[in-house]
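Hi R.,

Quick one: here's the Purine permease sequence you asked about.
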Amino acid sequence: MGRMKEIFIGEGDRYNYSQMCLLNNPFSRGEKQKVNFYSVDEKIPIFLTLIMGLQHAFSMVGGLITVPFVIFKFSVCFACVELQQYAIAAALITSGLCTLIQLSKFPIPGSEKYFGRQLFVGSGVLSVMGTSFTFLPIFEIAIRQMTASGIDGRTAYGKMLGTSMLCGLLELGFSVMPLKYIKRIFPPMVTAITVILIGVALIGTGMKYWGGGAVCADMVWKEHSQVTDQNLTFPPPFPTCEAGEVQLGYGSRELIGLGFSVMVFLVFIELFGSVFMKNCNVIIALLFGYLIAGVTDYEGSDYVDTSKISDAKAITFLWVETFPLGLYGPAVIPLLIAYLVTTVETVGDISAVFEVSGISMDSQSFNESLQGGLTSDSICSIISGLFTSMPNTTFSQNNGVIALTKCASRRAGYGAAFWLVLMGVFSKISGIITSIPDCVIGGMTIFLFANVLVSGIALSATLDLHSRRVKFIMALSLAIGVGVTVWPFAFQDMRGSSYTANFWRCSECSDTMKGLRNGASIFLSTGYCVGTVVAMFLNAILPEDGGVVMYDETKKLSEEESNESEDGAAAPLDEYDSDKKDIEYQKNEISA
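And here's the predicted structure, written out as tokens:
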């Protein structure tokens, strides 16, 4: 009996469940409670595995559901609720399966013979996988271009899956490169600029949802493909947004208020929440906003459409819905840049896992985990396409879960994978998610996306911001990247048409020229793509600073030169005499 208890719930002070769930008193002046740390290979009990895994899964769900939900609702098929529910379920299942690969560390047979060293698949540490935000802007723009050209949304999505699978081979090539070359190609400055630009782009997307939905916002700015009339100067200034049975204008205070309730509860959790609640703050705050929307109404109309839940299938799995795989040439270059970005992110994420797990990064184990993590990233991005899901890469927010819970055991990762697959299979969960009003989703995503921006700012804080070279590269890269993100219509038509923008008019071009034009449009309209390329180019051509010579150093050099001229050789200055001369010199300067 004692053995069973040890396996399932553990014994002793190392497994204190009360401190994990006890609410926090932010005004207490007493001694803070200490927590236990669980190392990477520690065999924590099954119950703790499931609890810790649930925290990781909850911290991921907010980010996992956002990307497929946004792509399918606002780009692929706005009215296809079942398709949106399937996309969310597929993303959850794929994330769980890819996490299992990343947690493992399989040696690749024969790699020593061909590469001179043993290669692995998987990092072997608590690093989880999920659908990356990095690919969201590219998928949005590319699918919009294809649908504007007459290609239906499902086919357009299939083409993007096939293209992303092909481009995923680039990261596989990086995974076998020595670490020193990767660091040389992607220095911290380039990484910081890239992450900042991704955060800026995503925050703009989150604001669209908060005001009532991306479709409404796009109609306001004449960007959505429904606005195709060449003679139409302005669309209706405040298009109607749907929130369940409620129809209100974009930016209505009722919709803004529902989204704001999510932010209010985020602050409450940060003040009073337990460790468990803080780790799951995004999903808990989202559920709170959903609850507020469910118990309130607008003139008798409900904000939540419960039919989406009742109509959802009880169980689903991969390949219930399929998409014809293909290639979309214009998206190749932007996707290659996106994989460059995810390579940088994976290096940073795995490094962060080692840091919060208390493992030295100056070891062979770190190099092996980094190589295995990049290989797993590439393989998972490729098989994600076969699973009808967008590319999967490492999730950085889970490093915060490790830091807060002090649990770095891989078993927690296996628990997270179990919960993710379970949530994906039971598609009623997807039905609940699709019934959440867009404004509530916006209140959650704008906070989630802002964390990406904050991560980029934190990376930039490690740079020498007093260096003229660093400031110049960051200023020019961010000027172009943020400028394009805020106003991409310098390279795109504000209407849905893909070929009428003044930058490159191509309405009568051949299919080949249209493909080239679309590729240039996607690249130039995606802020982090063009900003990253500018940063990499400037970093490669601009020489390092020569340093700054201070006033006292200049004067001492001149004194040493005068001593050399008088004595014929360099004579060391007496420290006291030197200081005395400094004071006399400064007095003369002041009196003058």
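The first strand starts at residue 106 and ends at 107.

Cheers,
M.
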